[in-house]
């Protein structure tokens, strides 16, 4: 095979010229922005994925085209490493450099990456590409595929799939199918088989009822949930709303981010009995939150912290009952509700760590445990089991029924990354084993009221943080001002950080009462506007 790097330049110049000079960065979850500016980014990411595959000796690299929780006009791209993990940080820097060079400098930049990383350009490379159901995704997918073709790599297109499905396909292929078949059917089969075996025909126990409302955020999650339902033997009654048919836009007034941040239900909710179990997933179905209305019609949220504590508590009981010794730990971010951390440390007695936002950070930390449960409060998370843990559980399963269940649970979990549907099936298993409804679940602890704001500033990167984003080190003096304000509130806690997926600064606040929380968030928001170059509209006084 003879590869001419000139082809990369020719493709770029003729088909995917760089039309936006603004510097963009590989952020929390890859590149995100307005879809009309992303063609050149996608082409270059196709090129990079091909190089990465060659660098990793022909292992499959995944490329997912999605802007996940962002509004419909946005799109984005994230790369998936051979073990299903997010792209290695040193290559994030390479990715940022590659998308920011001019078309004229592209050929030279590619040559430098090849030289610096000692890549055998004539070796094989395999890139799997998938996309969400945004109307501009097919165009952007073609750009990625052309990037692969420009360097004579092999590309396999999966069409419209969820982000966690892409992670699954990559791992399935790279483990030579030990993880499952790298096909859509293989994915459904793995999860449904595990779920139905654990269910074992027992559909309703104690307070647990077998019905669920599923808000698909008008995204790919809705489509895939419908595919699950078709293949399941009535083991769960799911009513899918916001299916993406008609005028509904992705994540618009619906989906996990809307429900979590605005703390209210999505549009198109049917009339329901109080305490009916509902879930919302985001635009690419890697996040999930639960919610319900109580008998006074009050909206109640069961977010990622609740899911994490439910799963960690259940796994701990199961492990204990098998008489095996495994180190279980939980990983959260600064967004975790203070009450959840309290509950984990003091009631569950599980070690907990706090890391920076982004599943890549949580996943990495969770790998330090035999059983690592990680969730962001926004509902993004999963569980990872070490090889050692899997071996011990397998041995125990020869004599212990609970260890057999644990093995099936491992199969049900998409360990590669947060997977809304897999997480949901796991929560359903746990609730039904406990005979719990949402009332039982929410009564485990009382959340502190909390509030998030998005503040527009001239340049969000003027904000720099440390200590898992809990302390702001720049602009100078901002943290001192935050501390002063926070000290006026009982159980007050607040932090600010630049988003890695949207052009905003995020403000998080919690305090002992609803009114205090709103006031605290407002005051911190004002500080950001004043000290970090706010450009947005005036904040509304609570
Ligand atoms: C992505 C990341 C998440 C992160 C979220 C918000 O989610 O995968 O880990 O919590 O962005 O990040 P930020 O606050 O930096 O904007 P998604 O669902 O949009 O891919």
UniProtKB/TrEMBL annotation:
Source taxon at top rank: Eukaryota
Required co-factors:
Mg(2+)
Presence of the UniProt keyword Metal-binding in the record? yes
Domain called Alpha-D-phosphohexomutase alpha/beta/alpha: residue spans: 58-94, 108-175
Entries under InterPro entries matching the protein: A-D-PHexomutase_a/b/a-I, A-D-PHexomutase_a/b/a-I/II/III, A-D-PHexomutase_C, A-D-PHexomutase_C_sf, A-D-PHexomutase_CS, AMG1_II, AMG1_III, PAGM
Quote the record's binding site residues for Mg(2+): 68, 282, 284, 286
How is the cofactor bound, in the record's words? Answer: Binds 1 Mg(2+) ion per subunit.
User: One matching Pfam family, short form?
Assistant: AMG1_II
State the reactions this protein catalyses.
Answer: N-acetyl-alpha-D-glucosamine 1-phosphate = N-acetyl-D-glucosamine 6-phosphate
Q: What does the UniProt function comment say about this protein?
A: Catalyzes the conversion of GlcNAc-6-P into GlcNAc-1-P during the synthesis of uridine diphosphate/UDP-GlcNAc, which is a biosynthetic precursor of chitin and also supplies the amino sugars for N-linked oligosaccharides of glycoproteins. Catalyzes the conversion of GlcNAc-6-P into GlcNAc-1-P during the synthesis of uridine diphosphate/UDP-GlcNAc, a sugar nucleotide critical to multiple glycosylation pathways including protein N- and O-glycosylation.
The name of this protein is Phosphoacetylglucosamine mutase
């Amino acid at each position: 095979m003879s590869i001419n790097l000139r082809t990369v330049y020719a493709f770029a110049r003729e088909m995917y010229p760089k039309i936006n000079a603004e510097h963009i960065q590989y952020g929390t979850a890859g590149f995100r922005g307005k879809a009309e500016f992303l063609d050149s980014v996608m082409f270059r990411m196709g090129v990079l994925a091909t190089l990465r595959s060659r660098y990793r000796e022909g292992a499959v690299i995944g490329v997912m085209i999605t802007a996940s929780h962002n509004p419909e006009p946005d799109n984005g791209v994230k790369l998936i490493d051979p073990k299903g993990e997010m792209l290695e940080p040193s290559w994030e820097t390479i990715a940022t450099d590659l998308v920011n060079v001019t078309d004229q400098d592209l050929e030279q930049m590619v040559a430098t990456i090849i030289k610096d990383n000692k890549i055998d350009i004539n070796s094989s490379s395999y890139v799997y590409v998938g996309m969400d159901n945004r109307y501009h995704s097919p165009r952007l997918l073609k750009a990625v595929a052309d990037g692969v073709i420009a360097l004579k790599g092999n590309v396999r297109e999966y069409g419209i799939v969820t982000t966690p499905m892409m992670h699954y396909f990559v791992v399935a292929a790279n483990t030579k199918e030990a993880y499952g078949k790298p096909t859509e059917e293989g994915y459904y089969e793995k999860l449904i088989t595990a779920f139905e075996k654990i269910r074992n025909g027992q559909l309703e126990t104690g307070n647990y009822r077998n019905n669920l409302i599923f808000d698909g955020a008008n995204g790919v999650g809705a489509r895939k949930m419908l595919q699950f339902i078709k293949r399941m033997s009535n083991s769960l009654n799911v009513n899918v709303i916001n299916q993406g048919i008609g005028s509904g836009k992705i994540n618009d007034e619906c989906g996990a981010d809307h429900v979590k941040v605005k703390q209210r239900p999505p549009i198109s909710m049917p009339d329901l009995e109080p305490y009916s179990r509902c879930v919302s997933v985001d635009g690419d179905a890697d996040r999930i939150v639960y919610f319900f209305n109580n008998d006074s019609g009050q909206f109640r949220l069961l977010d990622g912290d609740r899911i994490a504590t439910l799963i960690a508590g259940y796994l701990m009981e199961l492990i204990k009952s098998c008489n095996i010794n495994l180190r279980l730990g939980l990983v959260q971010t600064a967004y975790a509700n203070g009450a959840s951390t309290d509950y984990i440390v003091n009631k569950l007695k599980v070690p907990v760590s706090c890391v920076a936002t982004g599943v890549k950070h949580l996943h990495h930390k969770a790998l330090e445990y035999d059983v690592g449960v990680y969730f962001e409060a926004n509902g993004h998370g999963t569980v990872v089991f070490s090889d050692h843990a899997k071996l011990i559980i397998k041995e125990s399963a020869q004599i212990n029924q609970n260890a057999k269940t644990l093995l099936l649970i491992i199969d049900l979990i998409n360990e590669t990354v947060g997977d809304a549907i897999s997480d949901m099936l796991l929560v359903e298993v746990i609730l039904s084993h406990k005979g719990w409804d949402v009332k039982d679940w929410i009564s485990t602890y009382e959340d502190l009221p909390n509030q998030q704001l998005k503040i527009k500033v001239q340049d969000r990167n003027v904000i720099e943080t440390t200590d898992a984003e809990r302390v702001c080190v720049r602009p100078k003096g901002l943290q001192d001002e935050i501390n002063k304000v926070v000290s006026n509130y009982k159980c007050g806690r607040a932090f600010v950080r630049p988003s890695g997926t949207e052009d905003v600064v995020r403000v998080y606040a919690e305090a002992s009462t609803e009114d205090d929380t709103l006031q605290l968030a407002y005051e911190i928001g004002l500080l950001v506007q004043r000290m970090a170059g706010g450009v947005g509209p005036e904040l509304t006084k609570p």
